[in-house]
Amino acid sequence: MNYNFQFKTYQRPFKIPLKTAHGIWKIREGIILSLTDKHGNIGQGEIAPLSWFGSETLEDALAFCQQLPHLISTEIIFTIPDCLPACQFGFESAFIELSSNNAVDLSQLQYSGLLPTGEMVLTHWKTLFQQGYQTFKWKIGVDKITEEINIFQRLVNIIIETLSHSQKIRLRLDANGGLTLEEAEKWLETCDLINATQELIEIEFLEQPLSINQFDLMLELCDRYSTPLALDESVANLQQLTYCYQQGWSDIFVIKPAIFGSPKKLKNFCQNNQIDSVFSSVFETDIGQQSALKLASELLLYNRAVGFGVNHWFV
Ligand SMILES: O=C(O)CCC(=O)c1ccccc1C(=O)O
Ligand SMILES: [Mg+2]
After folding, report:
1. The domain that contains 12 carries what CATH number?
2. 68 close to 76: Cβ distance less than 8 angstroms
3. Could you report the per-residue pLDDT of 46-102, keeping only the tens digit for each?
4. pTM of the model
5. Which of 7, 19, 136, 272, CA to CA, is 20 to 30 A from 28?
6. Which of 38, 71, 99 is the last residue of a domain?
C-alpha cells in the first residue's frame, strides 16, 4: 500500500517557561504529518523530538521528512532507522490510525498533573486538585536542595491540612538526572520518612535522581531506600530500556512513547516483559497525545497514573 505524505511544523509556547535540571524551555516545536490512502482516508501522526533526552533533533526529523517522496510505502514507514525514534513514532502512529479500528477506551486512565517548580507549587497544586487530580509531579534539582526540601515539606503539610480522611494524594518527584548522590540520599530519606509517617500522602517515586551514566548507583539506591525509584532519561528508547531491564532494574520505568521509537516494538517489549511502567508526555500536541495514550491503555500493567496532565502548561 502507498500513502500520500504531507507534513508541517508547529510551535507552541508554554504559558510559563518550564524549568528542569536541563534548563529553561519556552516553546515546544514539532512536526505534524499526514498519510492519505487511496480511498482518501487520512491518518495523522506527530514527531515531537526531545534531543536533550537523546532523541533526534527537530532538524534531523525535518531533514528526514524533506528527503522522502510524496508517495511513501508501508516499507518506508517500518524501516525508519533507530536513530530517528520520534520519526518512527510519528509515522507508525499515522499508519495505526489508518489501519486499525481504533476503538481504544481511554476513560479508565488516571492522570498525573504536572506542578510548577518553586514556591508557586504551594498554591497551584490546589487548582489541579479541585480539577480532580490525585497524583502530582514536581520537578526538583532546579534550585538549591535545602530550599526545595523546605518547600516540599510545606507542600506536604498543606496537602495534609486540606484532605479529609478517605482521600489520598500521590506525589512524584522528578530530578531529571540533576542530583548528586548525596542529594539523592537526602531526598530519599525525606521521602521514606513521609511514607512511613503520613497516611494521606504517598511519595510514589523519585524519578531519575542521577544521570544516565550513574545507573549502578541508582540500582544501589533501590536497595537502600523503600521509596521506589523510576528511570526516565535512562530508558528513553528501546535499546536503553532493554539494557536497564537486563541489568536487573525492577522498580519503575517511565515510557515516553513519542520519543521511544517504534510503537510496534514497544508493544512487543511490554507484552514479553512484565514491567512496572508509567507512561508520560513530552509536551506533544493532542495528535501525539492520543496515539501515546492508546498505547498506554493497551500496555499499562499496574494502573499507575499517566504523566499526561500537562495541558494547563499551554495557552
Ligand atoms: O511525566 C510527567 O508527569 C510530565 C511530563 C514530564 O515530566 C516531562 C515532559 C517533557 C520532557 C520531560 C519530562 C520528564 O519527565 O522529564
Ligand atoms: Mg522525567
Report:
1. 3.30.390.10
2. yes
3. 999 999 999 999 999 999 999 999 999 999 999 999 999 999 999 999 999 998 876
4. 0.97
5. 136
6. 99
Select from 134, 174, 237 the residue to mutate for testing ligand 1; criterion: most ligand atoms less than 8 Å from CB: 174
* 126 tagged catalytic: no
pLDDT at 124 over 90: yes
Q: What is the 3-state secondary structure (H, E, C) of 152-218?
A: HHHHHHHHHHHCCCCCCEEEEEECCCCCCHHHHHHHHHHHHHHHHHCCCEEEEEEECCCCHHHHHHH
The string of pLDDT tens digits covering residues 164-201 is: 878 999 999 999 999 999 999 999 999 999 999 999 99
Averaged confidence pLDDT in the chain: 96
Protein residue with its CA nearest to atom 13 in ligand 1: 282
**Do 131 and 206 have their domain in common?**
yes
Whether residues 27 and 116 share a domain: the answer is no
User: 256, 264, 265, 267: which is the annotated catalytic residue?
Assistant: 256
- Domain tally, the chain: 2
How far away, in angstroms, is 72 Cα from ligand 1 center?
32
Q: Are 279 and 296 in contact (CB under 8 A)?
A: yes
**Catalytically annotated residue among 137, 139, 265, 294:** 139
Given ligand 1 and candidates 280, 284, 310, which is best to mutate, with the most ligand atoms within 8 Å of its CB?
280
* C-alpha cell, 15: 504559558
Q: Which domain holds residue 21?
A: 2-99
Asked about 139 being catalytic, the answer comes back as: yes
Residues 123, 95 within the same domain: no
Q: Would strands 111-114 and 135-139 be described as parallel, antiparallel, or unpaired? A: parallel
CA 163 / ligand 2 centre spacing (Å):
27
3-state class (DSSP) for residue 11? strand
Does the ipTM surpass 0.90? Answer: yes
